[in-house]
Amino acid sequence: MKVDVVRNILEANDAVAAELNTRLSAKGILTLNLMSSPGSGKTSLLERTLTDLKGEFNMAVIEGDCQTENDARRVAATGARAVQINTAGGCHLDSSMVRDAAEKLGVDGVDILVVENVGNLVCPAEFSVGEDYKVTILSVTEGDDKPEKYPFIFAESKVMILNKIDLLPYVNFDVDRASAFARSINKDIEIFTLSATTGQGMDAWYDWLRRERAKKKK
Amino acid sequence: MHELSIAESLIKIIGEEMAKHGLTKLHSFKIVYGQISAIVPEALETSFEMLTMNTPFAGAKMETEVKPMVVRCRQCGHEFSPSQEERVIMPCPQCGTELGHEIISGRELFIDNIEAE
After folding, report:
1. Does A91 sit within 8 Å of B109, measured CB to CB?
2. Looking at residue A137, which CATH number applies to its domain?
3. 3-state SS of A180-217?
4. I want to staple A131 with a disulfide (CB 3.0 to 4.6 A). Which of A33, A78, A216, B102 is the partner?
5. Residue B46: how many CB atoms within 10 A of its CB?
6. What is the mean pLDDT of chain B?
7. Would you say A166 and A198 are in contact if contact means Cβ atoms under 8 Å apart?
8. ipTM score here?
9. B27 in Cβ contact with B116 (< 8 Å)
10. How far is A55 from chain B (nearest CA, A)?
11. Domain ranges, residue A158
């Protein structure tokens, strides 16, 4: 016999994510799911952000990687609370991994919680991890056609960060083209062009964090 | 290869639905996914086969339906499906506006039905 099902395949993940987001929101925490290819500067962006906003916000980080605790160590060196999830080869984080990590980390008193996803422009986009917003970094060394090649992750993101703009003189990357692609697939996407290495453009990103955090605050 | 995680969730849902209807042998199931969702159906099928070896779900056939991307023009509200080539710059056939349309379909991922006894 034929049975009509019509159920979201990722309903279990989405349910855990929604519950986690409710719990974090009740504490006034702004939660971000930070995604990008490997090597585009997620951890460098975090290190700089955590250092620069240290006196302003209590920030905590959940680090996802296939192996090693390198990133959690780099983040912890800024003084922020950090916990590492090793997926042992898994290509993305899911909501129960992040829920358990948040428990381990302890989120009381945290203003901004950042989940640094596994470096990958495909898989993480399908899995909510309890975040308010997805933030995707694209570095200028990767090519300006990435929003076109990986539309889903940019369609799902609230923010696109174009990182490593200090390298623009050396690479063939058209900021306007990449931005147009992203806006074509996502009319509301916010775009910040910056360099986590030199600090150029970081202020607009910080202002966005301040605005969004203020909205969450009770 | 997030298809493996998706296959796990899929198997759980199919198991629940079969138990609900007192069914024991799965013949086929149908997946609907959006054109811009990050799903590779071949990878999903392989994952399903791997996870269901020597179970009552083994050998079940996977059918798929792709939902095309449909957008609503931000200027005139006209709904249209951009062609594959037009996915980046999507001129509205009615008013010509190119950017910033609202995606109303094309991101789906759900199980539509199962055939079982």
Report:
1. no
2. 3.40.50.300
3. HHHHHHCCCCEEEECCCCCCCCHHHHHHHHHHHHHHHC
4. A33
5. 15
6. 91
7. yes
8. 0.86
9. yes
10. 38
11. 13-213
Q: Tens of pLDDT along A22-72?
A: 999 999 999 999 999 999 999 999 999 999 999 999 999 999 988 888 888
* CA distances (Å), origin B50, targets A53, B57, B111: 47, 11, 19
With an 8 Å Cβ cutoff, are B99 and A12 in contact?
no
- Chain B contacts of A127, Cβ < 8 Å? 2, 5
Task: Express as a percent the part of chain B with pLDDT over 70.
Answer: 95
pLDDT, tens only, A166-215 = 999 999 999 999 999 899 889 899 999 999 999 999 999 999 999 999 99
Instruction: Kindly state whether A214 is in contact with chain B, defined as any CB-CB distance less than 8 angstroms.
Output: no
Is A176 within 8 Å of chain B by CB?
A: no
Strand-strand pairing, A159-163 and A190-193:
parallel
Contact A94 B110 (CB under 8 A): no
pTM of the complete model beyond 0.80: yes
In this prediction, residue A171 carries a pLDDT of 96
Q: Among all residues of chain A, which has the CA nearest to that of B19?
A: A3
Structure tokens at A166: 């200090």
CATH number at residue B85: 3.30.2320.80
Q: Which amino acid is at B58?
A: A
Chain A neighbors of B19, CB-CB under 8 A: none
Of B39, B88, B111, the CB nearest to A5: B111
Residue B77 region, left (φ>0) first, then alpha (ψ -120 to 50), else beta? Answer: left
Do the strands B102-105 and B79-80 form a parallel or antiparallel pair, or are they unpaired? unpaired
Whether residue A11 lies within 8 A of chain B, CB to CB, comes out as yes
Number of domains in chain A: 1
Domain containing residue B23: 3-116
Task: Give the count of beta carbons closer than 10 Å to the beta carbon of residue B17.
Answer: 20
Residue A218 predicted with pLDDT over 70: no
For residue A144, which amino acid is it?
D
The predicted pLDDT at position A58 comes to 96
Mean pLDDT of B47-60: 94
